[in-house]
């Protein structure tokens, strides 16, 4: 009997050329599908909710697949984790209606971007933070982020050469900037953004713009003008991939909007 299963997946993106399967490249989707083939005995396609880029990590990627297999759905995570490499983990699996699709039924996503603000890199953390060595002002960063909240045309924050979109209008529900105490001279910043959808490289470009405000290269209120300009060249640089984490995918608009706590 065919079942439709939704998996929650975490992975260290360092050793992958992103989520999406590619010839001659190691990808998360490719590794997941190899494990599913061993379980089901035939090729299985796992449809991810987000096509994360090379080097981007996931705390809560979601992927759905359909298959005819003998083991109970609740045992899939354990069996998969014995087959998968150590940089991927299935956190859970549950059966869904046959018409459910992890990507097309998603209502929104949450991303986290981590910055280590210090002069010297930590060898063991370098793949999980953007190391930035100039001083950053958390209040300026918070002010800049506040202008990004709401429903806007975010074409200024979409990578040039991206696949054309039906619309570049998106809604950002919240954008939090937190300064954390690190060890020694380390100062960690964690940026958390929740929205109904994101354009290609949008989170990384927004991060680069917020950093520009934090270092004093632009005034926070200039973010409003950058949005209205609709011009990629007006926004900040694209922040590196290694600081970005897909934290959560939402299938319920009430959770996305923070109405359920």
Q: How far from one another are the termini?
A: 37 Å
Radius of gyration: 19 Å
Helix content: 10-25%
| Helix-and-strand structural type | alpha+beta
How many helix segments?
6
Main pleated sheet: 10 strands, mixed
* Overall morphology: globular
Low-confidence stretches: none
- What share of residues are in beta strands? 25-35%
Number of strands: 10
Q: Report the average pLDDT across residues.
A: 94
Q: Tell me the series of helices and strands, N- to C-terminal.
A: EHEEHEEEHEEEHHEH
Summed up, what is this model?
21% of the residues lie in helices and 30% in strands. The protein is an alpha+beta fold. Helix 3 crosses helix 4.
Give a description of the structure.
- With 261 residues, the chain is of the alpha+beta class.
- It contains six helices and ten strands, in the order βαββαβββαβββααβα.
- The chain has helices at 28-40, 76-83, 138-146, 202-214, 222-229, 253-256, and strands at 3-11, 47-48, 57-67, 88-96, 108-117, 130-132, 150-153, 169-181, 187-195, 244-250.
- Strands 1, 2, 3, 4, 5, 6, 7, 8, 9 and 10 form a ten-stranded mixed sheet that branches.
- β8 and β9 (187-195) form a beta hairpin.
- The longest helix is centred in the first third of the chain and has 13 residues, at 28-40.
